[in-house]
Amino acid sequence: MQKKRSAVGLFFSYFFRGIVVILAIVILVLSVFLIKGVIRGKQLRAKNSNKAAVDESILTEHGDPDDLLTNSGKTTEDTEDSGTQDGLGDDSTLVSSENLKIVVLNATEVYGLAGSWTSRLQDAGYTDVTAANSFVNYDHTSIVVAEEGMGTDLLKYFPDAELRVGSVGQDETDADVSGVQIFIVVGASDAGEQ
């Protein structure tokens, strides 16, 4: 003999089944977004893995990184013979970053990191610096410049940073990327240096 269910019992039975189905769909959708984010992060890391190596000897050869911009400490003979140094161009092609449009991107989980670095750079005389967030976290800092010769003066603040010519896409940050000449993508390696 089959037992008949009451209307309330049927309601709760279908209600709980519906909740289980909805939760399963939500978990599936979140899993797809997570996998998509991981794949996108790997693609961005692979794209950014073409690093332009900076020979540290050019930063320490004359003691002060500012020597790269001013030629101070060099004689005329040294300047004439120096030519190019490790693909960064000769000293006359190096550009001061003080009046260039710079965006500092926080590529870590440390709240306010880009704002701290922005304040520090503004205090040092950089006039057009703003803070924003990177959608991807990085272990190491990168300085991404629009043209060869830019950003070398920023290496004194981020000595272990990768300096490369390129750009940051609108899909990688919440910043307005139009007209930006230098992006400083602050990674975990410089999270404690503020």
Could you please describe the fold and organization of this structure?
This protein is 35% helix and 13% strand. It contains 5 helices and 5 strands; from the N terminus they run H-H-H-H-E-H-E-E-E-E. The protein has helices at residues 7-48, 57-60, 67-70, 76-82, 113-123; strands at residues 101-106, 128-133, 142-145, 162-165, 182-186. A 5-stranded mixed β-sheet has the order 2-1-5-3-4, with helices on one face. Helix 5 links the parallel strand 1 (101-106) and strand 2 (128-133). The radius of gyration is 26 Å and the shape is elongated.
Short structural description:
The chain is an alpha/beta fold and 194 residues long. The chain contains five helices and five strands; from the N terminus they run H-H-H-H-E-H-E-E-E-E. It has helices spanning 7-48, 57-60, 67-70, 76-82, 113-123; strands spanning 101-106, 128-133, 142-145, 162-165, 182-186.
